Amino acid sequence: MKKKIIVFNILFLICELVGLGIIMLGGNKSLFEYYTVDSNLFALIMTVVYLYFVCTDKKISKAIYLLRLMSLVSLMITFLVVLFILSFMVPLQFLFWGYYGTNLILHVICPLLLLYIYFKFDEKVKVNKYELIYNMIPTLIYAIILIILNIKGIVDGPYAFLRFNFQPLYQSVLWFILIVGITYPIGLVLNKLKK
């Protein structure tokens, strides 16, 4: 079982390194504006940490479990936002933009592969429903930083729902509540379904 855990996590790392590597080699200086990049980088880091614990036969602490779950929730946000929000915000000819090249790797393959690894291999650590609130932290930090940068005019977007200067305030607040708010139920469901 340990070999399978290591193999699947290394496969995940390879996917992350290919997807993120291609983007970084593209020279885009604003790539950290994208939640996709940030969440995938977070998942990559947490997988390296997780592999360290697995390879050294150290017990996975509650903190590591929660951080690993937090990174999975962040990737699921990326997957779900592309699937249910961004796909409907772009012109028809770009409908599948999130599902080819590096977008396919970072929006679909990596989230679903980590989801599979979580359910198939990760050890469950007992956490209560209040500790699952921590899953909101990465999305909340990202949203606050990007909202401030948008309001100050330093950044435009990068997503339509973050363009506070170009939409009514109520719309921005609703998007904020929806996207940050969905992180808790996702974490709750993932933790409850984990055996």
Question: Summary?
Answer:
The protein has 195 residues and is mostly helical.
Describe the structure.
The mean pLDDT is 88. The chain has one domain. The protein has helices spanning 2-25, 35-55, 62-84, 101-120, 137-151, 169-181, 183-193. The chain is mainly α. Helix 2 (35-55) packs parallel to helix 4. The chain is built from seven helices and no strands. It is 65% helix and 0% strand.
Low-confidence stretches: none
The biggest sheet, with number of strands, parallel, antiparallel or mixed sense and barrel status, is: none
By secondary-structure content and strand pairing, the structural class works out as: mainly alpha
User: How many β-strand stretches?
Assistant: 0
Radius of gyration over C-alpha positions, nearest whole angstrom = 17 Å
What order do the helices and strands follow? HHHHHHH
Strand content: under 5%
Number of domains: 1
Integer average pLDDT? 88
List the total number of helices.
7
Distance between the amino and carboxyl termini: 16 Å
Features:
195 residues
SSE diagram, text form:
Layout: H1 2-25, H2 35-55, H3 62-84, H4 101-120, H5 137-151, H6 169-181, H7 183-193
Helix pairs in contact: 1-2, 1-4, 2-3, 2-4, 3-4, 3-7
